[in-house]
Write a structure and sequence with these properties.
By secondary structure, this protein is an alpha/beta fold. It is built from 25 helices and ten strands. It folds into three domains: 206 residues, no CATH class; 231 residues, no CATH class; 131 residues, no CATH class. It is 55% helix and 9% strand. A hairpin with a 5-residue loop joins strand 5 and strand 6.
Length: 587
């Protein structure tokens, strides 16, 4: 196989001859986001942005079939047409004619030929976009999806060029020159292969060999490469440590790539509070780094952000295991550490984690990172706890009611995360909390949906998946009723009032034994010494039952218990639950 691979500018490549898009290639398919990404990438790298690879093989005199790169080349030439029109608008005919050579050429027979041809093209790209006057282009009626996409790309480029000209203080020539040069100077690795089959092999090697880079790999390469090699060791260590931490979390098996998305969507480093999709994080991070005093400092700031958030995420496991706040001490700066404050935070955070949902992660990350590492006093301890309770109220109801993830709830969490991170005063944080409560109230599942979800909760020793939810429900209701007989300092466990021993958990007639109505909280040492018969253990249970647990207290006096009485108690618990987690929070 003989091939030539050289880095060339688009300007050089276009002037080589004519490039042809073969019939087997898919039609033009870039959407508006792809086109805007290209515009922004080139704008951010005016000295010459690298566009990737192009693979071609000869298909005639001065003709080259495009095996890879047809979408990019088509888009760049559409941009050149829009630039040509911009010159004509300000009567720069010489510059406009200079660009015409990148769209068409005169061949050896003296005939005009297009620099890019589609063998299956209907002619719209060439006869309209590359040939007609601008006034005619804007009157055309593209029919196929490919034609509509090409026309949309033209309008996007024309609109953005017009905006740059409007922002310039002169005649606009320099502004348009700058746009022209970005596209002409953009480069690719131009691979020319003698034969068609060899071109296919090169294409497969470039695209299909080895493990594809995901967004985490791309962002890592992006930020690490922006730091001088001699100074990047600490950042490389932080990155590796953070990735290992995320991979070891047992609370929720969040993939590192998803974690990256939650981290970035917990910040206000974007133009607005819209959710940044995972496949767009790299571009957004790049824009953030370039907005810093220098790119290297932006890269260091991002790695610190990633590392701080991974440290916080690691503590979620500790919170769920023992929500006493002590595990935060090694993470929190000494001047901000207080055991009582983080004990209160942990108790509230526990309620956010118990549902086991990833939905609130971006808001949790934003709150905790700003509280621990942000400006002192921006988020008070009381405000953080209030925010966490609001998150729990929404997420606990949402998860228990088994509502799916929707764009609306994701949007509510993202908006709040952005507002918290962008806040500069206590008042800003308070406004963010009020807006979140308003959003949450509009999303809240009904009382009926919530109760039905609570009825489905089940705990057996052999089926422990709901254990944290069940325990949390009983603890919060006990706290709501007041005059609890249980101390937070005790080791608490779940007790089946009707014993589960000897009963098949796969039998429908025994299912009630694992439901909320048959479960209560007891100190561990009491639980381990109880007799199995209800009439015998009732006197021992009575010491720990809340005074408002009426159905259970009555049956303790009567000395008998069963499915029907368990259902009566279930109703009492559910009625209390809708007060503990109200459908409407006070704003």
């Amino acid at each position: 196989m003989v091939f030539d691979a050289v880095q060339r500018t688009i300007g050089e490549i276009v002037l080589i001859g004519e490039h042809v898009v073969p019939r087997y290639q898919r039609p033009y398919a870039w959407d508006d986001e792809n086109v805007l990404d290209l515009w922004n990438d080139l704008k951010g790298n005016p000295e010459g942005h690298f566009l990737g690879n192009m693979v071609v093989h000869p298909s005639g005199s001065d003709n080259w079939d495009l095996v890879d790169g047809q979408q990019r080349l088509t888009t760049v030439l559409i941009a050149i047409r829009a630039i040509k029109d911009a010159y004509e608008k300000i009567d720069e005919e010489g510059r406009a004619q200079g660009l015409d050579n990148y769209l068409q050429r005169v061949d050896l027979s003296g005939e005009r030929a297009f620099r890019l041809k589609y063998r299956t093209e209907s002619g719209y790209l060439h006869l309209s976009l590359f040939s007609d006057p601008e006034s005619t282009i804007r009157k055309t009626n593209p029919k196929s999806s490919a034609e509509k996409a090409q026309y949309s790309a033209y309008k996007i480029f024309a609109r953005n060029i017009e905006a740059e000209v409007a922002e310039s203080r002169g005649s606009g020539v320099e502004a348009i020159d700058a746009v022209r040069d970005r596209f002409i100077r953009a480069s690719v690795v131009y691979v020319r292969v003698d034969g068609r089959q060899d071109a296919f092999r090169i294409f497969e090697t470039l695209n299909d060999r080895g493990k594809s880079l995901n967004q985490v790999d791309l962002v890592k390469n992006q930020v690490i490469s922006s730091i001088a090699a001699t100074a990047a060791q600490e950042e490389e260590h932080l990155w590796g440590k953070s990735v290992s931490q995320v991979e070891s979390i047992s609370w929720s098996k969040v993939k590192v790539e998803d974690f990256l998305g939650y981290v970035w969507n917990s910040t206000s480093h974007q133009q607005d509070d819209e959710i940044v999709a995972i496949n767009r994080v790299r571009r957004s991070v790049d824009a953030f780094m370039r907005s810093a005093a220098n790119v290297e400092q932006g890269a260091r700031d991002f790695i610190r952000l990633f590392s701080e958030t991974a440290d916080i995420f690691k503590e979620f496991d500790e919170c769920l295991a023992s929500p006493n706040g002590k595990h935060w001490e090694g993470l929190v700066p000494a001047g901000r550490w207080r055991t009582d404050r983080f004990a209160a935070i942990d108790r509230s955070l526990y309620g956010c984690l118990v549902p086991g949902s990833n939905l609130p992660l971006n808001l949790l990350f934003s709150l905790l990172r700003n509280y621990i590492h942000g400006p002192s006093g921006k988020i008070t301890n009381a405000r953080l706890v209030e925010f966490l309770k609001a998150i729990e109220n929404l997420q606990f109801r949402w998860s228990i009611a088994q509502r799916p993830s929707t764009s609306t709830i994701r949007r509510a969490y993202r908006r709040a995360a952005y507002s918290v991170d962008a806040a500069t005063t206590k008042g800003d944080v308070f406004e963010a909390l009020k807006q979140f409560k308003r959003d949450a109230n509009a999303l809240m599942p009904t009382d009926t949906q919530f109760k039905e979800g609570l009825k489905r909760l089940t705990y057996f020793t052999q089926r422990p998946q709901d254990v944290h939810r069940v325990r949390h429900v009983l603890e919060k209701i006990d706290e709501f009723w007041g005059s609890s007989k249980l101390s937070r300092n005790q080791s608490i466990t779940l007790e089946h009032i009707e014993p589960q021993g000897g009963k098949s958990i796969n039998s429908n007639q025994n299912l009630w034994v694992g439901k909320l109505g048959n479960l209560m909280l007891l100190p561990m040492e009491v639980n381990s010494a109880l007799p199995s018969d209800f009439s015998n253990k009732a006197p021992k249970l009575a010491k720990w039952v809340n005074g408002k647990d009426l159905a259970l207290r009555k049956q303790m006096e009567l000395g008998h218990w069963g499915n029907a009485k368990s259902n009566e108690r279930m109703k009492e618990l559910l009625d209390a639950a809708i007060s503990v987690w109200p459908r409407a929070m006070v704003v």
